[in-house]
């Protein structure tokens, strides 16, 4: 039966979907402008104009320019899959018993995430020299990655996967290095490696540095 007043019932799911589409569109436009023009030269007004919306809409959703960068960075961390990368990483740990296969899967996931998050991390690193909000975001990003690598290193230690003499600190440092934006920048962005080559390099490096030799 139609509503008595003749109006259509409120469709909250449709409104939510439209809001998510608008948010994604704004982040896509903002990321393009930031990477093209740099952090300092990009304004909220220019992003709003390029996106065809009001600057007020952006401020309501992201507060300011640094909030936009943070949102782009956090989106990059999820990778390109439907499930966030950190959840897939934890799922891989639970499913795979062979440590070398684990490294292979982690290498593939590392390359995927690096492809989405490295460009914005390099922007943050550059802007951090003169902008305190970007310096804070860079510090938070580094701290988050250290904790994530500690999480993975502790798993390797608990499962007895680490080779003799490898400390937890050693494992964290190796995982921290291969997941760094600097390594992806050097090999993929500067030297032209493919993501597949990078994934293999990461997996082989982790295996050689952390696992016992094959018997």
Automatic annotation (TrEMBL):
Pfam families: TetR_N (PF00440). Keywords: DNA-binding, Transcription, Transcription regulation. InterPro entries: Homeodomain-like_sf (IPR009057), HTH-type_TetR-like_transc_reg (IPR050109), HTH_TetR (IPR001647). Residues 43-62 bind DNA. Residues 20-80 form the HTH tetR-type domain. PANTHER family: HTH-TYPE TRANSCRIPTIONAL REGULATOR BETI (PTHR30055:SF234), HTH-TYPE TRANSCRIPTIONAL REGULATOR RUTR (PTHR30055). This is TetR/AcrR family transcriptional regulator.
């Amino acid at each position: 039966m139609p509503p008595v007043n003749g109006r259509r019932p409120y469709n909250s799911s449709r409104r939510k979907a439209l809001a998510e589409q608008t948010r994604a569109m704004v982040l896509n436009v903002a990321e393009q402008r930031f990477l093209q023009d740099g952090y300092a030269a990009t304004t909220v007004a220019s992003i709003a104009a390029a996106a065809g919306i009001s600057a007020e809409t952006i401020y309501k959703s992201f507060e300011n320019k640094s909030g936009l960068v943070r949102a782009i960075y956090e989106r990059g961390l999820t990778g390109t899959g439907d499930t966030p990368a950190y959840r897939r990483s934890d799922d891989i740990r639970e499913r795979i018993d062979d440590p070398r296969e684990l490294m292979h899967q982690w290498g593939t996931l590392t390359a995927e995430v690096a492809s989405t998050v490295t460009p914005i991390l390099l922007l943050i690193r550059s802007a951090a020299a003169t902008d305190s909000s970007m310096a804070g975001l860079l510090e938070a990003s580094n701290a988050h990655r250290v904790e994530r690598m500690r999480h993975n290193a502790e798993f390797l230690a608990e499962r007895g996967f680490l080779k003799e003499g490898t400390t937890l600190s050693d494992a964290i440092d190796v995982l921290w290095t291969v997941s760094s934006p600097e390594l992806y920048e050097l090999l993929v962005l500067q030297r032209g490696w493919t993501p597949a080559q990078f994934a293999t390099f990461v997996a082989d490096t982790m295996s050689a540095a952390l696992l016992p030799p094959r018997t």
